[in-house]
Amino acid sequence: DQQVKQNSPSLSVQEGRISILNCDYTNSMFDYFLWYKKYPAEGPTFLISISSIKDKNEDGRFTVFLNKSAKHLSLHIVPSQPGDSAVYFCAARSSGTYKYIFGTGTRLKVLA
Amino acid sequence: DTGVSQDPRHKITKRGQNVTFRCDPISEHNRLYWYRQTLGQGPEFLTYFQNEAQLEKSRLLSDRFSAERPKGSFSTLEIQRTEQGDSAMYLCASSKQGIGEKLFFGSGTQLSVL
Q1: Rounded to whole angstroms, how far apart are CA atoms A5 and B3?
Q2: What is the per-residue pLDDT for B100?
Q3: pLDDT of B13-38, one tens digit each?
Q4: pLDDT for res B1
Q5: Contact criterion met (CB < 8 Å) for B100 and A49
Q6: Is B40 on the interface with A (CB under 8 A)?
């Protein structure tokens, strides 16, 4: 029962171009979403979040878009840098709960 | 802000042995989580504490797993009679309940059961 899905296991992008990472969810009760970045042998690091009352949130090079009707969110990184190469996870939580459900991750490789 | 600290970073043990991991959350955080991650998968929820109360334990956790958070501060996760299938990265995270809440993760404990 995979409630949060990241269907692309990997993505390669040229340095300076846009990286778009996608995430789909099935539970319509999810109302808060987060993106994390993970380097090998380290814990996930928080990147950006979005509440379901918004459809876009921006922080520097990172923008998250939420399409509630499609149950889809995406993370845009522009411009992409080699240091962005990592595994990216999306996570979701239902209102009034505490449990975050994570996707399986997308490995981003930014080519210099 | 010292971040979430986990100890040890790595643990190698033989099948059947008991192991214990420790997590020190960010001091003002009242919520503490344990997650487990295996290769190619995202973090899987194991258990959750609000202050010292363990409010949920995943069905993934067999009776061999136990977690505590005495006095609502640090937490320990113990695995008894380890099995090879327990090999994974065990991640601890903490958060402060409220609007815009986000989880802060530690660096994890990598467990290898031989």
Answers
A1: 29
A2: 76
A3: 999 999 999 999 999 899 999 999 99
A4: 53
A5: yes
A6: yes
With a pLDDT cut of 90, the percent of chain A lying above it is 90
Q: How many CB atoms lie within 10 A of CB B86?
A: 19
Nearest CB neighbour to B48, from listed A6, A98, A105: A98
Chain A nearest-CA residue for B88: A41
Is the CB of A103 inside 8 Å of chain B's CB atoms? yes
Q: Which of B57, B105, B111 to mutate to test the interface with A (most CBs of A within 10 A)?
A: B105
Collapsed DSSP state (helix, strand, coil) of residue B102:
coil
Q: Tell me: the pLDDT tens digits for A10-55?
A: 999 999 999 999 999 999 999 999 999 999 888 999 999 999 999 9
Alpha-carbon distance of B13 to B112, in angstroms, equals 6
* CA distances to A3, A20, B36, B112, B114 from A70, in Å: 14, 17, 29, 40, 45
Residue A4: closest C-alpha in chain B: B42
Q: Which residues in chain B have their CB less than 8 angstroms from residue A99's CB?
A: 45, 48, 56
ω into residue A82 within 30 of 0, thus cis? Answer: no
Name the residue in chain A with its Cα closest to that of B55: A98
- CB neighbour class for A11 (10 Å; exposed up to 12, middle 13-18, buried from 19): middle
Q: Judge whether B6 and B107 are in contact, CB under 8 Å.
A: yes
Quick count: other Cβ atoms within 10 Å of Cβ B52? 14
> Any idea which residue has 């009242």 for tokens?
B30
pLDDT exceeds 80 at position B99: no
